[in-house]
Design a protein that fits this description.
The complex is a heterodimer. By secondary structure, chain A is mainly alpha-helical. Helices cover 74% and strands 0% of the residues of chain A. Among the domains of chain A are: 46 residues, no CATH class; 47 residues. Classes of the chains: A mainly alpha, B mainly alpha. The interface between A and B is medium-sized, with 28 and 37 residues.
Chain lengths: 163, 193
């Protein structure tokens, strides 16, 4: 440490070793010059501690939250859709397809003894009767998925352009 | 209820999708962040923009907050980079942003006290004015130490410096501030005489 002021600041900040602190304390108590500087610095330190923080405008939090909401709105659909939903949909379709195949194979008469080509003719595909509402729902789902894919594709190409 | 939650608890809520928890976090730290922004920008309009951008950036990368340091420590680094980017973009003349005189020229924009004579005469007014004339790094280190309630070790970690370097920087910043304040007060006394 170079000078008295630096030593006193260090003492006030509570830094330095025990030995150094004891020495500075001794000097403050016994040296007039030290004591004068200590009082000056302690009062300045108290002033610094009393400095009030600047107050932002009243609508500050509101504006930040507006920005946050705008940020959220800009997030791609991919980031907002829960992955569990995607996996759930995938699992539903896989199970349906799997069940359909198992059902179809179970209906084959394997002991018929006819030629291989007749196996396919013996496979009975269950007739799927869908109500118009279900058909529309499937169509809607297809359109949404197509839009989602298009959105992802456009975002990727836009990002590539920016980079 | 939320005001009693710690910063970490609020952050966990935000990450869980509760936006109102972030509003609480902003309310809690807006004065500190705004003051830091003021230390860099030197006028309220720019400081407001920097502080707002900083909070939005913080929200964006909140999941990267490890919780190893205080939220205010983490915010400081965001405010610092945001302010530097902002000032670089905004720089209208060829004066370096590190030039102390730049801030002396900009001092008149400080606060709304200018027409308040009683306030003008107070020592705390001059103290704030003197801080606004310090170099951004000096002003920031003083703000972090006194308003951010951060230890020298925490400031060192924030600024990527050795604790001893921060100690010396803080000492010098306070000395410069003290000299500026004394100079201002002497000038004021002369004016009054």
């Amino acid at each position: 440490m170079n000078n008295i002021e630096e030593k006193v600041w260090s003492y006030i900040d509570g830094s330095g070793t025990e030995e150094e602190r004891a020495h500075i304390k001794f000097m403050i108590e016994n040296d007039e010059a030290f004591k004068k500087i200590y009082d000056e610095i302690r009062s300045f330190d108290a002033e610094l501690k009393a400095i009030e923080l600047d107050e932002p405008p009243m609508a500050f939090t509101y504006r930040v939250m507006e920005g946050v909401r705008a940020e959220e709105a800009q997030k791609p659909l991919k980031a907002t859709i829960n992955n569990k939903i995607i996996y759930g949909i995938a699992a539903f379709f896989l199970l349906t397809i799997g069940a359909l195949i198992i059902y179809a194979l179970a209906t084959v008469n394997w002991t018929d003894g006819k030629a291989d080509s007749s196996i396919m003719s013996s496979v009975k595909i269950p007739e799927l009767k869908l109500s118009p509402a279900v058909e529309k729902a499937f169509l809607f789902f297809g359109v949404v998925m197509a839009l989602y894919m298009a959105d992802a594709l456009l975002r990727r190409s836009q990002q590539a352009k920016h980079n | 209820m939320q005001s009693k939650l710690s910063d970490i608890a609020l952050i966990e809520r935000v990450l869980g999708g509760d936006q109102s928890a972030y509003a609480e976090l902003v309310r809690r730290h807006q004065r500190f962040v705004f003051t830091l922004a003021m230390r860099f920008a030197k006028n309220r309009e720019d400081a407001e923009e920097i502080a707002q951008d900083s909070f939005i950036k913080a929200y964006r990368s909140l999941s990267a907050f490890q919780g190893n340091s205080k939220f205010t420590t983490w915010m400081y680094s965001i405010v610092y980079t945001t302010a530097m980017t902002f000032l670089r973009k905004k720089r209208v003349d060829t004066t370096s942003i590190d030039d102390e005189n730049t801030y002396i020229q900009l001092e008149s924009t400080h606060g709304s006290f200018d027409n308040n004579t009683a306030e003008k005469k107070s020592r705390s007014y001059y103290l704030n004015l003197a801080i606004s004339q310090l170099l951004p790094d000096d002003a920031a280190i003083i703000t972090l130490f006194y308003n951010g309630e951060q230890t020298l070790e925490e400031i060192a970690a924030t600024m990527g410096m050795e604790t001893n370097t921060v100690k010396v920087k803080l000492f010098r910043a306070r000395q410069r501030l003290k000299d500026k304040l004394e100079g201002m007060l002497k000038h004021e006394v002369k004016e009054l005489i």
